[in-house]
Design goal:
The protein is mainly beta. It has one helix and twelve strands. A hairpin with a 2-residue loop joins β6 and β7. It is globular, with a radius of gyration of 16 Å. The protein starts with 18 loop residues before the first strand and ends in a 7-residue tail after the last strand.
Length: 159
């Protein structure tokens, strides 16, 4: 993963080795033993319907991910080869899982604070909601996935 100059340390400067998170009611909990990737904002139609606007995700290696409590964890297939995990009790969205990948995506908001993470990019901007304004956060914007051409630079002047 790319290091963006943020050590992931706590307020005392101690390097963090475990990140934890879970749903709003606490029924589903997880821990991660590797630093999550920077946050990606996804503006696709599925994320908009799942989260009410853009989804904010981080990725971690599947081998570093461990469920601690999953009694109410439910999954649904959102598209071919991809499933989304959520808490069946509180409805909290937690995971985006491409089964063929070595990683699993966690909703950034499900991580316990502070995360010491930073945002990296916007994807699927072509499909953002018509009422959504991206502003000038300085992040790269891609019309589709991160392999598609960048449609606005770090100055954030489009969209």
């Amino acid at each position: 993963m790319t290091d963006h100059g943020d050590s992931g340390g706590d307020a005392r400067g101690v390097e963090r080795t475990v990140w934890t998170g879970g749903c709003a009611c606490g029924s589903v909990r997880y821990e991660v033993s590797a630093r999550p990737s920077p946050v990606t904002y996804c503006h696709c139609g599925q994320c908009r319907r799942q989260h009410g606007l853009a989804g904010a995700y981080v990725q971690v290696p599947r081998t570093a991910f461990r469920l601690l409590g999953a009694d109410t964890l439910a999954w649904y297939d959102s598209s071919q080869g991809i499933r989304r995990g959520f808490c069946a009790r509180c409805g909290g969205g937690l995971f985006w899982d491409r089964r063929s990948s070595d990683g699993i995506d966690l909703t950034a908001g499900s991580l316990d604070q502070p995360t010491s993470l930073s945002a990296e990019r916007h994807i699927w901007v072509e499909f953002k909601a018509d009422y959504e304004t991206l502003g000038t956060d300085g992040l790269p914007r891609h019309s589709r996935d991160s392999r598609s051409p960048q449609i606005a630079g770090p100055a954030g002047e489009a969209s």
